[in-house]
Amino acid sequence: GSELGNWALGHWTEEGFDLFENFPDLTSPLWAAEERQLVPHRFPGHHIPIPEHYLQEDAAVAVETRAIVAWMEKNPFVLGANLQGGEKLVSFPFDAARPHSETPAAPHPLDEDEDGERPEVHETPDHAVFRWLAISYASAHLTMTETFRGGCHTQDVTDAMGIVQGAKWRPRAGSMNDFSYLHTNCLELSIYLGCDKFPHESELQQEWENNKESLLTFMEQTHRGIKGLVTDQQGEPIANATIVVGGIKHSVRTAGNGDYWRILNPGEYRVSARAEGYNPSTKTCSVFYDIGATQCNFVLARSNWKRIREIMAMNGNRPIRRVVPGRPMTLRERLRLRQRL
Questions:
Q1: Cβ 336 vs Cβ 318: under 8 Å
Q2: How far is CA 37 from CA 44, 47, 122, in A?
Q3: Neighbours of 237 (CB within 10 A)
Q4: Burial readout 38-50 (b: 16 or more C-beta within 10 A, e: otherwise)
Q5: What domains can you pick out in the chain, each with its CATH number?
Q6: Helix or strand run (H / E) with residue 177
Q7: pLDDT tens digit string along 107-155?
Q8: pTM reported for the whole predicted model
Q9: Which of 216, 224, 215 is nearest to 130 (CA)?
């Protein structure tokens, strides 16, 4: 097929699934919780759990999607890209607009919806980082930023930069990019390699040359930001510790060996490491323009709260009655005290 063919050709699996949009919609519950001011105290703003109905055997979920979700949960990916065709640009999250926005059936420049109203576009807390990652690919591509002739099928929607936020261009819920950002540590983008979705064999070499340097530059961005280890005072790694960057309301977690990676733009950041049963630790970490992540390690001391919770659990999570000196204990109080001891 040529670029004049149907853009949707080959877009769905034989079972009728669009794999890219087959992931759990985590943006809608997040925004609903934000409106009720439940984030982050009652509802997490990161590593949002998968809804139970999505995990059921009879859920409308492709086997490929289930495999990808399991793969992403097993490996602590830092940066990801899904490669698509039929357009020539880089799209970054959020892909979903606010729930009242309707999802278009085909890609087109999204200035207004059918009712003449602009959809509400919600930027991620890592909007600046996503823009940098998208630009790193588009700027190294041989032709992606040459938009003077317009886009592939319509006028240019990227402001001559070759990048666009998904919700501004083609809003859709349940995308792989949004799921990856809200459920894992991974920052994921969609890279549309070229206008011709099915290039002829004779054109493949040029397509490779167009994208080769971009792919290498994009992969290098995993080394931009901070990285390190989170351990206790005995040097033992702490898994699932939360790394909080001041000013960015989105956190990552440490892997099984206590290591973490956090992609950040150049600047100075106040970074905290927090874990259940430990006192948090905060330090200043600087990110420089040169490629190479800044080492930023944390050592956490055990908190008394862990012992307090253990004592409360022994007491059935009921308040422990204070024994007043000089007042004789009742038989019931004496038995409870004996049990605790």
A1: no
A2: 11, 18, 16
A3: 15
A4: ebeeeebbbbbee
A5: 2-99+121-222 (3.40.630.10), 226-304 (2.60.40.1120)
A6: helix 176-183
A7: 444 444 444 445 567 899 999 999 999 999 999 999 998 877 667 877 8
A8: 0.83
A9: 224
